[in-house]
């Protein structure tokens, strides 16, 4: 990871691959309305997009709520934990 | 019951009666104690021993124990510190209000008039986070593991503490109602 960050030039393939994702997992405690509000407030999603992601979490057990580099996803996961959401990060293809 | 009052102009105010204020005070203070004890014991250990702490400080990586441990090492202290701050802020709001309401000559009044909390901007989020952390903790204690446990089946899954599960369930439901109400207020904004 450090090697990539140290390079002054990041090639386009690396940028567009965006190999990490933030996943939010379903849990029985978090209110659906609260989860949706967090998605809107933190990620800036529209009402519709936030609802869609919240429902995906609820019905499918998990949803990818953000994609990007690892550092960025760690920040998002940390923030989600701050809101009490059950979140983790993983490689996009995992 | 709690009432949300929206004045013609200005922010929404959450009004809590004496009993509600007292319950929230106890919960906030217990949450602070639990989080501070866990911090003293070491969070890496605490999450191993206590399902509530494991839920409040989840794994950042699910398939990589090494990365998960490292993530926790770098984030858990701030995360738990934030939760303590939120609980303390709630506690301060509840106690400040109660003492304001008391007559200076009557030292035994306590929470006679309950509390009124102005839910504005960050304050609303502080309350939401606190209510959520408290609900997560109670759910872990009660062993709530399934969606739609909604009718609040009071059957206890563990009886290793003196807490009355039915009472805990009622409080859990009420906290959910409070949280839902604050979300609804922010939704309108």
Description:
The complex is a heterodimer of chains A (94) and B (189). Chain A contains five helices and three strands, in the order ααβααβαβ. Chain A is an alpha+beta fold. In chain A, helix 3 packs across helix 4. The longest helix of chain A has 14 residues. The two termini of chain A are 17 Å apart. The model of chain A has no long low-confidence stretch (mean pLDDT 88). Chain B is mainly α. Chain B has one domain. In chain B, 63% of the residues lie in helices and 7% in strands. Chain B has six helices and three strands; from the N terminus they run ββααααβαα. In chain B, strands 1-2-3 form a three-stranded antiparallel sheet. In chain B, strand 1 and strand 2 form a beta hairpin. In chain B, 33% of the residues are buried. About 12% of the residues of chain B have low confidence. The interface between A and B is medium-sized, with 24 and 35 residues.
The gyration radius over C-alpha positions of chain B equals: 18 Å
Question: What CATH architecture label of chain A applies?
Answer: 2-Layer Sandwich
The rough form of chain B would be described as globular
Query: What quaternary form is this?
Result: heterodimer
The SSE order of chain A reads: HHEHHEHE
Helix content of chain A: 40-55%
Q: Shape of chain A, please?
A: globular
- Tell me the fraction of residues in β-strands of chain A, as a range: 15-25%
Mean pLDDT over the full residue set of chain B: 83
Strand line-up across the major sheet of chain A: 2-1-3
What's the name of the CATH homologous superfamily of chain A? Ribosomal protein L7/L12, C-terminal domain/Adaptor protein ClpS
InterPro entries (chain A): ClpS (IPR022935), ClpS_core (IPR003769), Ribosomal_bL12_C/ClpS-like (IPR014719)
Keywords (chain A): Hydrolase, Protease
Pfam families (chain A): ClpS
Subunit structure (chain A): Binds to the N-terminal domain of the chaperone ClpA.
